[in-house]
Amino acid sequence: MHHFEIRNEETTFRFVIAEASRDTLRLVHAQVIETVRTEAYVQFARDLTHAFHALQGVARLQNEAGRVILTISFERGRVEVETDWGQGTNRFETDQSYLTRTVGQIGIVE
């Protein structure tokens, strides 16, 4: 299983890719499963990588129904993370240094 984690000093948001196929991924956070299209996840990874290196931009991950379940916004080293996973919405801020590991977890995306 592949782990994805975003955090700051107080808050940690993580999900696991529990199952993957050519078409979809099943992501699990706090025992809540979201299904995303593989294409949407790859685009999210590209957007995240680009925003991380540009120090500006937004990466959004949509579930299979088209609802945005994760938004990561960069602006000059400051990062805002918003999750809308299952029934709950959560928001926290961090800085870009905390995202180095996160981008490394995604790997190289071209």
Q: Segments where pLDDT lies below 50 for 5+ residues?
A: none
Mean pLDDT: 90
Terminal CA distance: 22 Å
Physical arrangement of strands within the biggest beta sheet? 1-2-3-4
- Which percent range describes the beta-strand content? over 45%
Task: Assign a percent range to the helix content.
Answer: 10-25%
Structural class: alpha+beta
Number of helices: 2
Largest sheet: 4 strands, antiparallel
Radius of gyration: 13 Å
Categorize the overall geometry. Answer: globular
Listing every helix as H and every strand as E from the N terminus to the C terminus, the arrangement reads EEEEHEEEEH
Number of strands: 8
Account of the protein in words:
- With 110 residues, the protein is an alpha+beta fold.
- 22% of the residues lie in helices and 53% in strands.
- The strands form 2 sheets. A 4-stranded antiparallel sheet has the order 1-2-3-4. A 4-stranded antiparallel sheet has the order 5-6-7-8.
- The chain is globular.
- The mean pLDDT is 90.
What's the structural blueprint in terms of helices and strands?
Elements: E1 2-7, E2 12-20, E3 24-29, E4 32-37, H1 38-54, E5 56-62, E6 68-75, E7 78-85, E8 88-95, H2 100-106
Antiparallel strand pairs: 1-2, 2-3, 3-4, 5-6, 6-7, 7-8
Spell out the key features of this protein.
globular; 110 residues; 22% helix; alpha+beta; 4-stranded antiparallel β-sheet
